[in-house]
Design a protein that fits this description.
Layout lengths: L13 H14 L4 H6 L3 H18 L1 H14 L3 H13 L4 H8 L12 H14 L6 H11 L2 H24 L8 H4 L5
Amino acid sequence: MTAIRPLDFDQLDAGLRAAVSARYERLGYLGDFYRHLAHQPHALIAFDTFTEACKAALGPPLAETIALTVASALDNAYERHQHERLAVRYGLGREWVADVERLDPDAADTLLDDTQRAVQRFALSALDVQTTTSATRLDDVVRVSDEPTAAAVALLTGRFVAHALISRALRLQPAVPSIFEDGFDGS
């Protein structure tokens, strides 16, 4: 762990506690990402609000495509394991999760639809500092969807990159195992 002392739920700033209480009650725990970063409650509330606004604009299939792509590509097991479970709960299925985590949107046997593939191509190109294709890939997202979707895709990709970098700095370990380790089926 990091030298940033984790806070327990009852130690949170009142505003932050109110903002995360539904998640805390649903999960039964406060994730370490929130526990460590709760020392900046207003920024963390804004980060959470930003995340939820982007996810709402995209819906589960596209939001989870981004979450799983970035978490897999940047080896953020903390976030990947949680989003595997969310994707299965949303009804996307274990096979779909495995397909996203394969990081090959051009595979002939992919389960991803055209928009999901375009989103994954964008996310992967945005992560690759050696390429200049991310602008073209974002244009592709516009072509298969629309400008508001592409804007949300770009913003949410940045959010998951930020999460991965912070998680690495905090040395976060997954709160839950991968669905491929414990057989989680959404129930």
